[in-house]
Amino acid sequence: MAALLSIEAIHTAYGLSKVLFGITADIHQGECVCLLGRNGVGKSTTMRSIMGLTVPSQGKIVWKGEDITGWAPHRIARAGIGFVPEDRRVFAELSVWENLDIAARAARRPGPWTIEALFDLFPQLAAIQSRMGGFLSGGEQQMLTIARTLMTNPDLLLLDEPSEGLAPLVVDMLLEKIGDLKKGGLTILLAEQGLAFSLALADRVYVLEKGEVRYTGPSSALRDDKDLADRLLAL
Ligand SMILES: Nc1ncnc2c1ncn2[C@@H]1O[C@H](COP(=O)(O)OP(=O)(O)O)[C@@H](O)[C@H]1O
Ligand SMILES: [Mg+2]
């Protein structure tokens, strides 16, 4: 079966500073795939390249069989790729409900996600729906940014380090929620530094190092071979 998304040998730079050196990866419908690697290896840049926020200088991004390299970010989003960036920025002056409502108005794709459906998924957000975005905890912000992106009914969700900086109990809660999304059939590309979080969710992993894919295989290979995991991540 053809991949939903193919990243084909992309090279991406910020000005003269080259960051990605031929990253190749693919994601099939219904899979959860993780870009795993330490800080600075190029995980976010890979996601930004998929979204058209930094356009690759070589290689291409193929979405549902179509070359989308160079498309404007809003067009890529409208084609069905939802991005939850690592900065978790929400509108501080708007309530939780208003943050979601704005996303609903911007979303032009039909699909299952409504504010009600998202409040079912995240009852914690329903409980604080009139609170201002500027008064949310890190975990609440993360739930809200995920919920806001789901409002656009994406076929693929890019999640950039969702667990970063969150307390262990909040991380467990997020793991469960992202697991629910996966069980619901959503295709997910995750970027993570932590092995435990990624192995708990991902079917397959790509381990990145200095802008290249150093290893790829099923999560079970890393789960079963601790030496391999240590070697890959203790670089
Ligand atoms: N806006 C930017 N301008 C210049 N260099 C950047 C920028 N963003 C990231 N980089 C550099 O690109 C490399 C990869 O960064 P990034 O993709 O954010 O890695 P990761 O998400 O894996 O931590 C790092 O060396 C980082 O310093
Ligand atoms: Mg990053």
- Please tally the helical runs, counting DSSP H or I stretches of 4 or more residues: 10
CATH fold descriptor: Rossmann fold
Class derived from helix and strand content: alpha/beta
Based on Cα principal axes, name the global outline. Answer: globular
Low-confidence stretches: none
* End-to-end gap: 35 Å
What is the percentage of strand-forming residues? 25-35%
The CATH C-level class name: Alpha Beta
Ligands and ions found? adenosine-5'-diphosphate, magnesium ion
Any idea what the CATH architecture is?
3-Layer(aba) Sandwich
Largest sheet strand order: 6-7-8-3-9-10
What does this molecule look like?
The protein has 235 residues and is of the alpha/beta class. It has a single domain, classed as 3-Layer(aba) Sandwich (Rossmann fold). The chain is 37% helix and 26% strand. It has helices at 43-51, 73-78, 96-106, 115-121, 123-127, 138-150, 168-183, 195-201, 219-224, 226-233; strands spanning 5-14, 17-27, 32-36, 58-63, 66-67, 81-84, 156-160, 187-192, 204-209, 212-218. The strands form 2 sheets. Strands 6-7-8-3-9-10 form a 6-stranded mixed β-sheet, sandwiched between helices. It has a 4-stranded antiparallel β-sheet with strand order 2-1-4-5, with helices on one face. A hairpin with a 2-residue loop joins β1 (5-14) and β2 (17-27). α3 packs parallel to α6 (138-150). The chain is globular, with a radius of gyration of 17 Å. 40% of the residues are buried. The mean pLDDT is 94.
